[in-house]
């Protein structure tokens, strides 16, 4: 008893005020500047001057970049080196391309999440001969130390964590609008870069050799352009390639949904009632993880095929209105808009957690919450309490933006698969003979999907079985693939 009293007394001596570097959570979680799996190296006393107003140069004297703090480059380099260990296929591509440079002459402008994994992709593209300029596709997902490391290495990068909407478009414009630099390839995630060039620099757009797009949202926008007859360059839909859909969307979200929720809310999943809106690959991954943790999971769907899959996997298929009053967590995974409306938000129970796992921030109607009668209270970085006049509050994560990349990290190995697919799509479009690809949206050839997968198998010490000549003839296949038809998903 005496020991317990001492312990209690000792505990009470600890500081009670929770500052930026709280005792109750790791540095990376409390930092407003970076969510890396390691500690954040951004000094909490960092001045709040906008990077746009700072004059920074790297060690080579270049100022063709805009990042939070170029002095963080050394720490960012270490994170990139860690990521390289889990990205075997990109490292293999670098080795194979030491002799030939399949992207020599390529001028790639990119707009993706700027993380250690993206840095490995960018440096691989550089090793393959490309020149790159890069901006972020999400205002919260940039790792500042990684952006600094890329800028130090000579990559023109324009991104920092916590950009404003105006900063976001300014960064994209700085990537594109450079005297004496005409991009000939676009690597996009969400379609914002493509549409910026299309609307603001139509003449530049016509000179692009190809676009590679990796998100549901961006692909949808490309198909809209194509349908309207306004897509004047070939585009590769990487999102629907098997090595993106079946791996990044499914396995990545299966792990990162729990990570994002834990880091922001410290919640217990067992017994919680969760509704997942959308049962595509992202929804499937989220549902599998939450079910394994003991949550009671409901699913909403518009597609009868995905809905039937949800039922067969043991989930209750409901309309959002039917469960909105009782659920503890609402997760959107649709790529659509206004999935969770103000009416839904008004009917949620006290302390309901609301978050989005789709690319775009349109799924939850966050704008409807910015009204005088509701009070917003910042709890942690990327965690807001929105409080109703009667005292009810909901917990909104990342202001409705992508939860996993805004609030946590995603598994590097899965991103290796996606990044390799992107690199091969760029190589394919850039080197394609005149006329192979017309002004349309294409899927990556199945042979390339299989090649990407095969590059990752040695990590598991996995050994593929080879067909005999007789078996190959029986199946009507080439012994070396492709083993599935192009329409296989």
Sheet with most strands: 8 strands, mixed
What percent of residues adopt helix (DSSP H or I)? 25-40%
CATH structural class of the largest domain: Alpha Beta
Radius of gyration: 24 Å
Number of helices: 19
State the CATH topology of the largest domain: Rossmann fold
Strand composition percent: 5-15%
CATH-assigned homologous superfamily of the largest domain = Adenosylhomocysteinase-like
Features:
single chain, 489 residues, alpha/beta, Rossmann fold, 2 domains, 7-stranded parallel beta sheet, 19 helices, 15 strands, globular, NAD(P)-bd_dom_sf, NAD, hydrolase
Walk me through the topology:
Blueprint: H1 2-12, H2 27-30, H3 73-85, H4 88-96, E1 107-112, H5 116-127, E2 131-136, H6 144-152, E3 157-158, H7 165-176, E4 185-188, H8 192-200, H9 202-206, E5 210-213, H10 216-227, E6 235-237, H11 242-265, E7 273-277, H12 281-292, E8 296-300, H13 304-312, E9 316-317, H14 320-323, E10 329-332, H15 342-347, E11 352-356, E12 375-380, E13 383-387, E14 393-397, H16 403-407, H17 412-431, E15 441-443, H18 446-456, H19 469-475
Parallel strand pairs: 1-2, 1-4, 2-3, 4-5, 5-6, 6-15, 7-8, 7-10, 8-9, 10-11, 11-14
Antiparallel strand pairs: 12-13, 13-14
